Amino acid sequence: VETNFGSFSRDESENGAASDADANANAYVGGMLNWQTNNHPLCNVSIALKCPSSTDLNSHIPLAILQMLLGGGGSFSAGGPGKGMYSRLYTQMLNRYSWLEHARVFSQDYQSNRTGGLFGINASCLPDRAPMLVKLILRYLSNQLTSSLTTIELSRAKNQLKSAILMGLESRHM
After folding, report:
1. Gap between the Cα atoms of 66 and 85, Å rounded
2. Which residues sit opposite 122 in a β-bridge?
3. What are residue 131's phi and psi, to 5 degrees?
4. Which positions ≥6 away from 128 have C-beta within 8 Å?
5. Is the distance from CB of 22 to CB of 29 less than 8 angstroms?
6. Do residues 100 and 75 make contact, with C-beta atoms less than 8 angstroms apart?
7. Considering the entire predicted model, what is its pTM?
8. DSSP of 70-131, one letter per residue?
9. What share of the chain has pLDDT > 90, as a percent?
10. Which pLDDT does position 30 carry in this prediction?
């Protein structure tokens, strides 16, 4: 990962203690929300890890490329093929598990404290498959730490990011 995306620095000093900036910042400690409704038949699961702030471009750009590489989508795509079909989430999760309705990578930056944000996977399935989904997401994230990238995957992810940035610049609300 470091070869292709650069190093991801930690917010800890050499002795493992939190830095002064971290000690004063709001800390995300995790949590779970269990909300049931008869109007929505699917269960949504999100698992995320702390990530660098978007203000740190040395970390943010590789993280954006990683988000494009992992990608995601739904089990049904309106408008024809080609929307993320080669992303890792699509090939390694959505195509393999028929009970999985949706999976996507997300990142959420918390600029109010400038200590970073969250990077994770959000996925949907029927409620009886939720325990399997949690295990699947955790196994998938773990496997990504040891899997290598192909030149084609990296090139595709970089091109998708460039395209997304250019399309965003053409938007009127920028």
Report:
1. 16
2. 46, 104
3. -60, -40
4. none
5. no
6. yes
7. 0.70
8. H-EEESS-TT-S-SSTTSHHIIIIITT-TTEEEEEEEEEEETTTTSEEEEEEEEEE-GGGHH
9. 14
10. 67
Q: Which of 21-35, 36-50, 104-118 has the highest mean pLDDT?
A: 36-50
Q: What is the pLDDT of residue 80?
A: 45
Query: What's the confidence (pLDDT) of residue 75?
Result: 55
Q: Compute the residue count for the chain.
A: 174
Residue keyed to tokens 């993280």: 63
Q: Which two tokens stand for residue 154?
A: 């990296």
Q: For residues 11 and 116, is the Cβ–Cβ distance under 8 A?
A: yes
Mean pLDDT of all residues belonging to the chain: 75
C-beta separation of 101 from 42 below 8 A: yes
Residue 162 corresponds to which amino acid? K
Q: Is 146 helix (H, G, I), strand (E, B) or coil?
A: helix
Tokens of 133: 């989904």
Arithmetic mean of pLDDT, 66-91: 68
Structure tokens at 44: 């949504």
Task: Enter the tokens of residue 82.
Answer: 């080609």
Q: Which residue has the tokens 């699917």?
A: 42
Number of continuous H segments (helices) and E segments (strands) in the chain: 6, 4
